[in-house]
Amino acid sequence: MAKAAIQVANGDFSVYLPPIHTTEKLDYLDVLIMDFDKMAEEYGLCRQLCECALQFKTVWEEKQIEFDADIEENVKRYNKAYF
Hints:
By secondary structure, this protein is mainly alpha-helical.
């Protein structure tokens, strides 16, 4: 799990850790692993959305479209929930 956390910290959100036990016998570590996987997936999605929005920045500026995203604030709230 430590290696996966380092990968996520370095921007690699493709990390996936499989649960240790079967669905019928999940324990606290399995739940922690599943939460970690969900967090990494959501961070990756957030990053993709940011990159996509920035690719179209010149287009929405040319058309004078106001673009306001609270992604950073949501990430901060997400961090507080998990750490």
